Amino acid sequence: MTDVTNSPLTVAGSRRRRFNASERQVALMRHLVLMSFALIVLFPFFWIISAAFKTQIDLLMGKIFFTPRIDGFLDVIFDKTSDFARNFGNSMVIGLISTFLVLIVATLAAFSLYRLQWPGWVLHSLLGWSVIFHMVPPITLAGAWFTMFRSVGLDNSYTGIILAHTTLHLPMALWMMGVFVRDVPKELVEAAQIDGAKVPQILWHVVLPIVRPGLAATGILTFIFSWNEFPVVLVLSQRQTATVPLGIGKYAQENTIAFTEMAAASTLSILPAFLLLLFAQRFIVRGLTSGAVK
Fold it and tell me: Looking at residues 43-70, what average pLDDT do you find?
């Protein structure tokens, strides 16, 4: 009589169960590790948001359980001595306009470099120079920009800050858009040229629809970098053109630090980037993964 416990089917089934169990354990460990890293990354945000709803005394005493209050938000938004609403509007204007300019210049430059048959040394020289420029600390350029803008009447102006932000973030955008424009099939561009399309028509009707995810990813990253820029705006701006990072820094005075108001302003400053990432997440993922895979 055949021993059922040693039959090939029984042995294969037990091995499959052990394999599935080990797979589940590995998946569980992977999720635990990812959750641990997520908590480490998100803890500062939770701490800042909770601090925004505390009083100064509760915050200094380190209370974990407290009665939430919105006095910090009211002081930041409605207090007559607070400029945070103006700072918020300045950051929005500067970020949107500089991002728009960066996308236009980076897209045109990437299309020119990869589709208009420039010599190889021009392409590599420009990309190499953009990497070197991107590695230069922005604060080292701020003094020269301040002197130059003051000589032409652009000191403490939106135009000067927008031009500075555009210059700072253009190298990163050029590299990102270069990846997407380079991966546009040459056959599509050549077919459009055979049909008699001019360069602006090829760019508008052929290239832009294909690189739209890349435009979204590049635009969102550029806006976030512009929104968080601090040292350049510290040198180039005054009270009328100060942005959100400067507005947050003003709550740290020489003799006292308004921790609650600073936490409230920091919480409000997170909202634009959070909303962008929330509504455009699929475009960012498509754009970044598309460029990486190709």
Answer: 86
Range 263-272 average pLDDT: 91
DSSP code at position 4: G
Is the same domain home to 132 and 253?
yes
Same domain as 183, residue 230: yes
Phi, psi (degrees; rounded to nearest 5) at 83:
-105, 15
Q: Is 78 within the bounds of a domain?
A: no
Would you tell me the crossing angle of helices 259-279 and 212-228 to the nearest 10 degrees?
A: 170
> Under a CB-based contact definition with an 8 Å cutoff, are residues 177 and 106 in contact?
yes
Range of the domain at 34: 4-52
User: What is the phi-psi region of residue 132: left when phi exceeds 0, alpha when psi lies from -120 to 50, beta otherwise?
Assistant: alpha
- Based on the domain organization, do 126 and 169 belong to the same domain? yes
Pair (174, 239) in one structural domain: yes
> Helix, strand or coil for residue 255?
coil
Q: Which contiguous run of DSSP H or E holds residue 219?
A: helix 212-228
pLDDT band (50, 70, 90) for residue 282: low
Domain count, the chain: 2
Q: Is residue 242 part of a domain?
A: yes
- Burial letters 106-137, b for 16+ CB under 10 A, else e: bbebbbbbbbeeeeeeeeeebbeebeeeeeee
Q: Please determine, for residue 3, whether its predicted confidence score (pLDDT) is greater than 80.
A: no
Instruction: Look up residue 119 and give its two tokens.
Output: 């010599």
- Which has more confidence, 21 or 31? 31
Residues 6+ apart with CB under 8 A from 134: 171, 172
Degrees to nearest 5, angle at CA 108 with 181 and 281: 55
* Region of poorest pLDDT, from 5-14, 70-79, 176-185, 262-271: 5-14
pTM for this model (two decimals): 0.82
> 207 with 111: CB under 8 angstroms?
yes
